[in-house]
Amino acid sequence: MACILIIDDDEAVRSATEIVLNANGFDVVAVASGKLGIEAIKKQHIDAVIVDLFMPGMDGLEATKAIRKLNPRVPIIAVSGFLFGAGSCPEMPNFQDMAAEAGATSALYKPFRPQVLLQAIQKAIGVTA
Length: 129
Hints:
By secondary structure, the chain is an alpha/beta fold.
């Protein structure tokens, strides 16, 4: 089955995402930082990446750009819980646009429903449910 790399500094999100993916037959590598994600991409075959855009240290935008250099074809799903351009922060850019500019193939707002995540993964790796 496909191997999915999760890069998220939030342990609860990382664990929940890993549980959903494992329960649906995916192999998972879960790490807490962009730097560890880059190391994982270098060491093993990864079919798709889920990356949180806003993390301390190497953020998801930097990680996405670095992953693109290492593997231009791997699908990258950017996730964020910060609603750019909404209500309290209308001057901020849309995170989906930021993710696309960095090289992400799609983006999801956190929290996302398990089915939405699975559909994004299946679309990214070319699998139909």
